[in-house]
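Run log, item B.
One chain of 300 residues. Sequence copied directly from the ordering sheet:
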Amino acid sequence: MTATDADADATTDGTTTDATATAKAPVASGTGTTPGPEPVVTPGPLPRQRRHTLFFLEVVRDFAPVFLDTEVDMTRVLAHREAARAATGVHYSTTGYILRAAGRVLARHPDANAALSGRLRQRRALYPYVHGKLTLDATLDGQRVVLATVVPNLHQAELGQIQAHLDRIRGADLAELPDFEPVRRLHRAPLLVGRARFRRASRSLALRPRLTGTVAVTSLGHRAVDSFHSVGGTTTTFGVGRILPRPVVRDGQLAIAPLLRLSMSFDHRAIDGAQAADVLTEVKEVLEKEALAEEALAAV
């Protein structure tokens, strides 16, 4: 404290102000205001293993996201999953069903399966295929991170093919898997070089489906999360919460059904709310009503 500071804390009669007295008074232990240990402050940017997330968040600032959500009755999906497990031993993940449904629906909505690039000189790409990005909770070099895998050709992929892709990724050492070598190269590069590489790749409408897919799915349903919204770098992103038994009305009667709260964000630059509502409603209808028995048999 400087002399000027000390003078400012004193009144004309030589006593200290209330604020100064409070600051100088000892703090009683057990009051919840006792200063704790000093925080650990490390110089420099985020850990290298999270740089790809930082670069991604910088790129998606151009998006204009709007958020929708709905509830999906998962009775048919869960019945199919149990039947398939009994018949084949394969456990289909919830996200696999979402990816399949999104692929079927977006093939019918090319504007919602598009990508934009640029501001002053904007360009748009309409893709003849649907590639789906799925985020993964992973650990690299002891650091917990988010990685993503892109499942190709969801517009025609069967559920067994989607699940085989997810099982290959989840059963591998992500620190060694060739799929994630581009991410590891970003981590090894100097910060500014890695940022420039990522931005250059993300501006390419030809490369973007390989980086982020044409639709994204992200799930926190393995924890006590009912719903959430995310921007996955695609025109539409689906957020998957947990499935819980909840009350529903069927034929005028109260019943209990396994419900999934499914959210969807959409980039308002690419599509408007009415079409986004169509997409979310159709994904819900595929999950609730489309028969999957043939695929369970095909997976044997």
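Observations after the first pass:
- The first helix runs from residue 3 to 9.
- The CA atoms of residues 65 and 267 lie 5 Å apart.
Flagged for discussion on Thursday.
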